[in-house]
Each structure stands twice: as C-alpha cells, then as structure tokens.
Amino acid sequence: MQDDEGTQFHDATTNGACLGKDHRSWDETISAISCFLRNSFHESISSSPYHAVFGMDMITHASSYPLLLSLNLLNEPFSLSKDDRMQLCRRNLRHRIREPHERNRRQNDLRSRPQTFQNFSAKLSPMFINARVREKSGNYYYILENLQGKFDGTYHAKDIRP
To answer: Burial of 145 by CB count in 10 Å (0-12 exposed, 13-18 middle, 19+ buried)?
Structure first.
C-alpha cells in the first residue's frame, strides 16, 4: 500500500498486466508480481525497496550471474564495510522520507488556524460545578449559589445535573 495515488495506479496496472484477462490464476503469477513490487522505483525513497533493504539491485534470474561476474559488478570494491554502507543507506532513506513528510506538514500547517486561549476557555473548564439552588426564577431557570453561599449565576434546567 503506497501513499502516492499514482504509484497505486501504476502498481494496480502492472498487477493487471501480470494476471492477464483471467484473474483466477493470480497464484501462478504471484512471484512475478512480488518481484515487480520489490524492484519498482519509489520516488519517496529514490530507489527500489529491495535496494533500500539490501543495498544492491535484485538479481531476478540465475542466468544473470555469469554476466555480472564477468563485468565485475558483483564484487565491487568498497572502502566501507557492508554494515557501514547499510547504515549510510538507511540514514539517506530517513532523510528522503522526512522531506515529503515535512513538505506535507508545512502544507497542512497553512490550512490550520492557530488558536490561542486568553484568560478563560469554557472548553477547558469542568463540565459541572458543585452548587445549590438558591431560588427558582421562571419555569426552567434557577439561581444557583456555590457551597460557600456565594451567587454562581442563573442556569437553565437542562444545564443542571441533579
């Protein structure tokens, strides 16, 4: 499951191409589909998932080994150990994944309005206060006092909890 809708469409199109017209035989082509998904280029990480995990491109068929060996592509001399290369690769991936996240965060921050609360916010106050009914004022209104006998206000009956 990709975040990018274009990538989802591309993956779905490729899956459909691998399956052909008869989708009941999906289990026969599952290896081709999974190979495609592991090797497809992801823009967010600027590499394929296989390359991101293992640090090299995936060899899809054994007949490719003699050619790669003759071209000396399998035994590339590196000055860094494999652990160091993988650590650099993961650091690079974190950076590449963080960039779109920050870009989306900045865009979403533009949409939200900053809220500041000054002095008092009823939203943050307690739902109910302890009070006694001082007197009834009309059909549905009551004048309340706190437990010390101080005037608390006039409240509608729907706002009073027994």
So the answer is: middle
Q: What is the pTM of this model?
A: 0.37
Domain count, the chain: 2
Q: Cα separation of 72 and 85, whole Å?
A: 19
For 36-79, how does the pLDDT look when each residue is reduced to its tens digit (9 = 90+)? 777 777 776 777 777 777 776 777 777 877 887 787 766 655 66
Q: Is there a single domain that holds both residue 99 and residue 133?
A: no
- For residue 119, being part of any structural domain is answered with no
Alpha-carbon distance of 113 to 117, in angstroms, equals 13
Q: Is residue 51 within 8 Å of residue 57, measured between CB atoms?
A: yes
Contacts of 158 (CB under 8 A, 6+ apart): 140
Q: Which two tokens stand for residue 12?
A: 């779905």
Could you say which residues of the chain have pLDDT below 70? 1-23, 44, 56, 73-80, 111-118
Residue 140 domain boundaries: 128-161
Residues 105 and 48 occupy one common structural domain: yes
Q: Report if residue 82 sits inside a domain.
A: yes
